[in-house]
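Trying the structure run again after the queue cleared.
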Amino acid sequence: MKKSKEMPLEEHLETANDLAIATHHLNKIFFRCQEHYYNSSNLMKHLRKICPGMVSGVFSNILDELDSEFHKAITEEEFKEYGHIYYNLEKRYKKIQEET
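Done. Tokens:
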């Protein structure tokens, strides 16, 4: 089966919501562990690689790539309506929590 070259808008919105939830929980884990383990520990080194907000982290790279793909897939009008969906994920998480 041939894969589509672009993710549709609705799936980008769902993905942004999923990432908002993941961001919230990864940050909680990071800060909880940071209270108990040294930054030089293997655990904290691994968490820094995946934790949102770490500029050189894997999570940040994924957000950048998804944001680029999102902008390729939408129109100017859709951007005006939705904005930068892959950023401000904690704010997006709070909105999701209010809706549930």
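The CA atoms of residues 6 and 88 lie 23 Å apart. Worth checking whether this holds up in the mutant runs.
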